[in-house]
Amino acid sequence: MSQYWSPAIKALTPYVPGEQPRERVIKLNTNENPYPPAPGVGQALRDYATDHLRLYPDPTSAALRATLAKTFSIESQQVFVGNGSDEVLALAFQAFFCHGAPLDVPTITYSFYPVYANLYNVELRPHSLNASWEVDIEALGSASERSGVIFANPNAPTGHAHSLESIEKLLKRVTDRVVLVDEAYVDFGAESAIALIDRYPNLLVTGTFSKSRSLAGLRLGYAVGSAELIDGLQRVKDSFNSYPVDSLASLVGIAALNDEAHFDACRERVITTRERTRQRLEALGFEVLPSKANFVLAQHPDYAGAQLFAGLRERGILVRHFNTPELNNFLRITIGTDDEMDSLLEALQVICG
Ligand code: PMP
Fold first, then answer.
1. 51 alpha carbon to ligand 1 midpoint, in Å?
2. Distance CA 157, CA 165 (A)
3. Whether residue 221 has its Cβ less than 6 Å from ligand 1
4. Where in the chain is the domain with CATH 3.90.1150.10?
5. Class of 7-36+261-351 in CATH
6. What are the Aminotransferase class I/classII large domain coordinates in residue numbering (predicted)?
7. What is the fold of 39-260?
8. Ligand 1 in contact with 124 (CB < 6 A)?
């Protein structure tokens, strides 16, 4: 602890991502995609080295924003891009949630939200999940004063997703502040709230190229919403670095967006493997929460989460175990290839045998 640190930094518990393995293991702990990105990405990388690397990027990221706008059938001025959706979320906290009132958030959700709340001095008002481990969307925004509402849909690490209908009910109630829907996992079977941005100027939807587009290493994320919200994000961003993303991220992101067939094939494979994994985990006695994401959250009535985590780790399989009272018994398992899931299930059969 340093005397030079501000109080918010002293109080900060940094987000600890899943561990990065040193030797070859089956890595099912950080929700990456097991399949390679679109084939066009390779060509984009080669073009980049020869044609773009020596030049400054376009400070408006116009081509990438236009391609995202076309993908979502919206306008470019409704699109913001940043270095991973984590950066976009950090900018959203600074632009929209520092009103001096609590920010409504589910108790069990993406663990970066409390980190940003600490960092930007935003008080959180956490709402418990319901008995089925679903975000209690009725409770979010029900108090009279708030700085905004944030939740992930599908939620992490539970995987449950609300329908557009229930998100719209929330938007009808909360009109005075920003409602941020984090759609990092939406492409694995949930409905996107992007369909609502034209009707709700306070709705901001964030997304990422890290999961369904297999580009976690690139650090590319986006937000879509009304032009006034995008302008708010741009103001905060400009005060740090006027280039929203570098030219490599733009070029590769465009190549990924332009291959819808590859995108659909990969996400369908992940969804099929997820459902197969779910059935086989249930056959081993696990309770598996229904998931619309590229992971499942599962617990076994007879074995502690920590014990299963350690047993898998010994066998070279990394999954995620959360050391919190509510989630202590669960494992969050990323959906890998069918072969990787077979290895996981065989190992669990031995451990639980
Ligand atoms: N939101 C949620 C709910 C996530 O789980 C993650 C990934 N850990 C992110 C956002 C951030 O994704 P990225 O920064 O890779 O775009």
1. 31
2. 22
3. yes
4. 7-36+261-351
5. alpha beta
6. 24-348
7. Aspartate Aminotransferase; domain 2 (3.40.640)
8. no
